[in-house]
Amino acid sequence: MDPVEFLSKLEKTTIMAVEFDGGVVMGADSRTTTGAYIANRVTDKLTPIHERIFCCRSGSAADTQAIADAVTYQLGFHSIELDEAPLVQTAASLFRDMCYRYREELMAGIIVAGWDPRRGGQVYTVPVGGMMTRQPVSVGGSGSSYIYGYVDSNYRPAMSKEECLKFTAEALTLAMERDGSSGGVVRLAVISEQGVERQVILGNQLPKFSTV
Amino acid sequence: RRIMATVSVCKYYPGGFSFDNCKRNALLEADISKLGFSSPAARKTGTTICGVVYKDGVVLGADTRATEGMIVADKNCSKIHYISPNIYCCGAGTAADTEMTTQIISSNLELHSLSTGRLPRVATANRMLKQMLFRYQGYIGAALVLGGVDCNGPHLYSIYPHGSTDKLPYVTMGSGSLAAMAVFEDRYRPNMEEEEAKRLVRDAIAAGIFNDLGSGSNIDLCVITKGKVDYLRPHDVANKKGVRTGSYRYKHGTTGVLTKTVTPLNLEVVEESVQTMDTS
Prior knowledge:
- Chain A: This is Proteasome subunit beta.
- The complex is a heterodimer of chains A (about 210) and B (about 280).
- With about 210 residues, chain A is α+β, with helices and mostly antiparallel strands.
- In chain A, about 30% of the residues lie in helices and about 35% in strands.
- Chain A is globular and about 50 Å long.
- Chain B has five helices and 13 strands.
- The longest helix of chain B has 22 residues, at about 95-115.
- The radius of gyration of chain B is 25 Å and the shape is extended.
- Chains A and B meet through strand 5 and helix 1 of A and helix 3 of B.
């Protein structure tokens, strides 16, 4: 008779981000679980940190929401002081500082991605433990294990925006099919100099593969 | 050096969990067990609470049973708490935690509202609640459904004990949340009319009451619209106490008395002392 919400809420998830020339494409599933119950089937795991910087959240929902709120505040303050758009690397560093300092208390795997005028589209990954590294393609969350092969074999450098969107949607679909902790809808975001475009691909509109 | 006036009376926490009470609790536990007793179990509201956003606002619903282990401690407790004139919050989990948390945030929000000169926003209440619950890392067992109407329209949040929140058009919490969610997933539509929304919430709570052992008794509703709040307690007395069909008293003489002996106890007063009460 224990209430479901005393278990901590996890976003075990599949998250992904890809750099292309001129910006980044980010994607995530939409499932949040408490134990075996899906607490939220339409979660938005692509969280805005600044106008052209987003993060994908995986791990403990409470931890990642709290970290994202703190970094949003710090980055906003920094941006006002600088009087210009912050760098994606700065945002990633702020995430890294917090995730590393409190690594024993936190369970958070974050992918930071965005566009800045200095270096264009960038993807930085900050996994559990607090490492930070820049990667052209990054996957995260419990569902990522199932798609490393697909990503490694299908990624080509210098893909266009549309190719990146298709690549991300297909990778996420494959992960969601095989990982019990991922599911729901596919949320996509494209960040470029022009701004942010967001998309949702509903369950019946996901790409079809022959075995799934 | 000038210090900005703060809007909350609460102690400023430098960060992290406050261990002040842990030592005291440990000593109390040790003392109590030495005497052979066990410390009282926290009263939990094994509950069904839910909320729904409809055309003109939000409808919040809750059952009214509070349990202490397997016993019903309160058959008609109120789980829909006041936060501000336009924001109410249903609470599931540890009864004391939900009560105190909502009261603290209600107080701070009133001060904040006086400082800003504006009606408080639901997002503000959500922030305050999630930041406090995260600070306590889940040890404050408060699972909340926060709903209200502000200048940006109607809003509904679910808030978990560890401090994560979800902003959704319909939410359920508590031990009966799965039963209530089943009703919502079947019949929820966006932009419902008020009567339909009230019926939906009533049915969701009823599902929790009749299918979950931790929930029971009556159904309370709270309908919040722009400028008006209908606190319907009770909205539906789903479990009326039955009327006994006959008298079950035994008539005098049912048990035959065989013998009767009376033994007076001669007690002598050894000492008599009077202690005056301090009425000053």
